[in-house]
Each structure stands twice: as C-alpha cells, then as structure tokens.
User: Fold Major facilitator superfamily (MFS) profile domain-containing protein from Trichoderma longibrachiatum ATCC 18648.
Amino acid sequence: PVHPSATSWAANNLAPANRRAIGLAFCICMGNIGGIIGSFMYLDNEAPTYRTGFELSLAFGASGVVAAIVLELSYMWANKQKSKIPEEEVRAQYTQDELLRLGDKSLLFKYLL
Assistant:
C-alpha cells in the first residue's frame, strides 16, 4: 500500500480538483500494484533467506527515496522560478478563473515541501 505521507504530498501539490483526483487514484493504484509484485518477489526455492525478495525490496525502497529527493528538489526549483515573477504582474496577465484553471501550473501556485 501507498504510504499516507506520499498521498498527502500528492494531494497538496496537484491542482485543480480533477487533476488531484486522478493523481491520488494513480498513487493508490501504484501502491496496490506493489503488493501484487511483492507476492512474486519471495521465491519458495530461496527459503528461508529469500535473497531475491529482500534485494528487490531494498532496491524499490532506495529508488523511492531517490525519487522523493528528486521531486522535492524539482518543487524547490519550480517555487524559486515562480517567485521571480511579481504577483501583480501575474494578476494583470490572467483573470482569477484562468489562474484557477491553470491549477498547479499557475505562477501563483506554490508547491508544498
């Protein structure tokens, strides 16, 4: 299953609502697929050490940590780029409805870290 903090991170950084719903469904789907894959990683002929299963678990865990770090760094970079443009300039260029439709692509949207 997907970790609750990953789900809340996705929910807070996806907008508008339809994109958030699809993103959360994708997170939950990937978590459930992980459970299916996990049941095939631990081979009966490797009992009791299950070397392949534990190595794959370590590899998936490490890749998850790397992905989270890369995502956080990309959010930090995006926030820095967005903060270079003054809010008044953005509001003069877009209407409130356009900004809402842009969701997290809006220059006023700040990613939560």
